[in-house]
Amino acid sequence: MIQDHLDKIEERLKQSEAVKESDKAELLTLLTTLRTEIADLSQTHYEHAESIVGFAELSAREATRREKNPALLNLSIEGLASSVQGFEISHPKLVEIINTFCTMISNLGI
Q1: What gap in Å lies between CA 99 and CA 65, rounded to an integer?
Q2: Given a cut of 90, is residue 107 above it in pLDDT?
């Protein structure tokens, strides 16, 4: 299930006409690293991993819509950022990736 969500994010990013190619490349690179970090997290905190990926998918969907809704985009980004709270010590790379992802997704919504 987690991998399905990550696949959907990847496909959405690849297909989006609203995202510049350079941003796509950077987001897809982040997504590759996120896959590894989420796989590690899911071994011990599966439900948290599901939440993180779910919010990441929602954020990517909102950021790549043709007609963006800034309120929904902000809510999805806030949810994504909140979903990694508490993992700063045990999974610092995951938190770093999500923070970068949130920043990039937020900038796409502008």
Answers
A1: 21
A2: no
> What's the rounded Cα separation, in Å, for the pair 29 and 89?
23
Q: Name which of 73, 42, 53 is nearest 8 in CA terms.
A: 53
- Residue 86 region, left (φ>0) first, then alpha (ψ -120 to 50), else beta? left
Rounded to 5 degrees, φ, ψ at 29 are -65, -45
Q: pLDDT digits over 86-106, tens only?
A: 999 999 999 999 999 999 999
Spatial distance between the Cα atoms of 110 and 79, rounded to a whole number of angstroms: 19
Give Dmax over CA atoms of the chain in angstroms.
Answer: 38
The residue type of 88 is E
